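Example record used in the benchmark description.
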Amino acid sequence: MTQRDYFGTSGIRGRVGTEVDADLALTVGRALASEADRVVVGRDARTTGATLVDALAAGLTECGTDVIDVGVASTPTVARGIAARDADAGVAVTASHNPPRDNGLKLWQPSGQAYDQSGQDRLVERIRAADFARQPWDAFGTRSTWTEAQAAHVEAIVESVDVSDPPSVVVDLGNGAGGVSVEALQSIGCSVETLNAQPDGRFPGRPSEPTAENCSTLAATVASTDADLGIAHDGDADRMMAVTEDGEFVSGDVLLALFARDAAGAGDRVAVPVDTSLLVADALADAGAEVVRTRVGDVFVAERTTEEGVVFGGEPSGAWIFPDDTLCPDGPLAAAKLVELVSRAGSLAAQVDSIERYPIRRTTFEVPEKAAVMERLTAAVSDDYDDVDTLDGVRVDLGDGWFLVRASGTEPRIRVTAEARDPDRTDAVFQTARTLVETHRDAA
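Model output (structure tokens):
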């Protein structure tokens, strides 16, 4: 790899053979060994995972670090396993919800939090300098297996919830590594039916990302049975999405509002990325709580949940962080928390209906010179509007609505999002944001 950014918003991820290969995994292992004596590693079900884990482990052990291999496991199982085995770091070999052709590496700290910016920068500097402490033959690290990682994860989930009347659940694993979710829900007492439960890194049952379109079979199954809700995971089960008993796919913003409203009380805060709907802040306002905005990416959301008074963090994409339990997005834990909520508060469909929803519009522009365009646009918006947030792109709060203009981190694109409580106002705000991008794109 060349002098590009190794880490995106969610670890290292890309096309196998061009952006991600065994050489990269070996190099990351060597770099990580400089600051870790013991590392937990695991992988999702992708066909390329075993090769990358072997290369990663070779780099670690070659530099004197012991490796604890948990095999095929969910990413939160790997992240939680670090503290359980008194390790210094963890690496999940996964591309999460990406297609089968991709793979990647995501690094974790003992707290369960993903490597933050400073940690990523340290590793990148070492990689670019090829500053590795290779050891002689008699000082290599060891590689062992830990077959109880999933059982430990299940036990932790069961201990974190209190479900007096376990509902019936359909769980769509998407041929991924989220079997821990099924075990945990069964241990809680739920009646569980599964879809796409056989791990298969080709994802033959459905595409890995748990979107409404990809979860149509889950929705139909739940609607045609007496199940109380449906749960869907992506390939490594860091994400969790849901379906009501009526077969309605619950949008990420609404699910975030439900979790946030349940977790937060007066004076509490909830961490959400800058592209989150107004409905979350409105749902929290009734409880006297508020949102605090972060950059897009579960790494940044998790980092914010370590602050005083932040009781929950989530991304509408399906990453949910319960800081009292762990700082990693834990899809199986979120599934259990949702089951607990349904057990305590009743029908998921009724809870969803209690959240007021607003129209939201999105589009994407192909912009080869995205950095220059964003620089011009940011300057203009800062002059023309009072409430401008440049934490991640340019977000303008208009009181009754907002728009966000944000450059893609990996592609020559600029994304526009706009929302207001009134449909006509949404259209107007959306057109304003579109015009801003077009004007400053054409000003070159």
